[in-house]
Specification:
By secondary structure, this protein is α+β, with helices and mostly antiparallel strands. Helix 5 packs across helix 7, helix 9 runs antiparallel to helix 11 and helix 9 packs parallel to helix 13. The longest helix is centred in the last third of the chain and has 21 residues.
Length: 415
């Protein structure tokens, strides 16, 4: 006797795997069931006959995986398919035809349209679009999405060893798209070919400016502001670009937060800017006096709401990379990234004894664990103190009886 349950979240959760695959059929909607694999994976299915009679073709297409689609959603889809079958249509066959015809470019466009743009931040969506344009579409765009195999994806990923971070991000995006393809019925359930492909190890890079390097950067910025630094084509650097670099260093903000900053959000008297959105949601960006001075020196353009104005009317500056490369080359800091200015802000805060939760608040971290990467820098003041004490001890040892005193004499301690 086949298993029969009223399909709901509680009853589906309670189904236990067995030695072989089985289907628990719904007691309300004929043909609607839950397929349970020995692995414990559960998928909603709809069983129907095409053509009628004994010569008809029986289909049992998967609606979606339990956990990725709710039982009520699966039931609504099954009801829709039942209505199509009653009209003589073949919903499972139509899905199979669409699945066979679908290219990876088609799938990725649907990923952007139905997942990334509605659910992700604009900056994250723009990064997805760049990964698709530069990595995924050139490699697999015209391939059938259903036909992509783990072996060919693994070979492609291995070929990107020189750019491990971008390779891993592209693989993660492709994997998400393949998971959604299963939910949408465009690939067989459990067929994601990105599973078990090992990602490259990513070395976390923490680059901080030393005081001497900071001074060199300051000299380069001053030269840029005076017009002495030029691009390869001989143009002076935009004052807005130079101001953006100073603001990144003075505030520890993310690049997108400074380039997207609008005058309407800035309170110079209060020393802050209220950002309506950032990587971690709403955020108050505190502006120390040097940052306020930079902002006060910038012109406000009548036709542009952005603090860091671009060349196009009403638009923010987009290309800060080229000006940054000119500035860092002049400072002799060719390995310094813009994001390292944020690290340097945090390192100065730690060196001055600020707590990690306080620093996390300044940087806009969602969790203290993110700020904990700077914890090791808290040893620097103690390291300097230990070096000073050790130096005095070494000097005393080298000087013998006439050497320096390790502990100050009573006379030295008197006021």
């Amino acid at each position: 006797m086949p298993d029969r349950i009223k399909i709901a979240k509680r009853t589906v959760d309670a189904l236990e795997p067995r030695a072989s695959r089985y289907v628990a059929w719904d007691t309300v909607l004929p043909g609607f069931g839950v397929k349970v694999l020995p692995s414990g994976r559960k998928s909603f299915v709809f069983k129907y006959r095409v053509g009628g009679g004994r010569g008809g073709l029986t289909r049992e297409p998967v609606i979606g995986s339990h956990g990725e689609i709710a039982p009520d959603q699966a039931r609504r889809i099954a009801k829709g398919w039942a209505a199509e079958v009653a009209l003589g249509r073949d919903p499972g066959g139509a899905r199979q035809e669409a699945r066979v015809a679908l290219t990876l470019d088609d799938l990725l466009e649907r990923y952007l349209r139905e997942h990334a743009r509605p659910h992700k931040k604009a900056s994250s969506t723009a990064e997805d679009e760049a990964l698709i344009r530069n990595y995924l579409s050139p490699a697999f765009g015209t391939r059938k999405a259903e036909a992509l195999t783990r072996a060919e994806i693994a070979r492609w990923h291995a070929g990107l060893a020189r750019t491990p971070y971008r390779a891993n991000r592209a693989l993660a995006l492709l994997s998400k798209a393949m998971n959604l393809a299963e939910v949408w019925g465009l690939r067989p359930d459990g067929s994601n070919p990105c599973r078990q492909i090992r990602k490259f190890r990513e070395e976390k890079r923490e680059r901080f400016l030393s005081p001497e390097e900071t001074a060199r950067l300051g000299e380069a910025l001053t030269a840029a502001e005076s017009g002495r630094l030029r691009t390869a084509s001989g143009l002076a650097l935009s004052p807005f670009a130079v101001a953006a670099i100073r603001l990144l260093l003075f505030t520890g903000a993310r690049r997108s937060e400074i380039l997207g900053l609008q005058w309407a959000w800035v309170d110079l008297d209060g020393g802050f800017a209220d950002l309506p959105d950032s990587k971690t949601g709403r955020k108050r960006l505190f502006l120390p006096p040097p940052a306020v001075a930079v902002l006060s020196s910038l012109p406000r353009l009548d036709d542009n709401p952005f603090v860091i104005a671009g060349a196009k009317p009403g638009a923010a500056l987009v290309n800060i990379r080229d000006p940054w490369h000119v500035v860092r080359a002049a400072a002799g800091l060719d390995d310094l990234r813009l994001h390292d200015l944020r690290h340097s802000f945090a390192s100065v805060a730690v060196a001055n004894g600020m707590s990690l939760p306080l620093i996390g608040g300044l940087l806009g971290h969602r969790s203290v664990a993110t700020t904990a990467r700077y914890a090791h820098l808290a040893d620097d003041p103690q390291r300097l103190a230990a070096a000073a004490v050790g130096g005095r001890i070494e000097a005393a040892l080298a000087g013998g009886r006439g050497g320096a005193s390790v502990v100050g004499s009573p006379e030295e301690e008197r006021p």
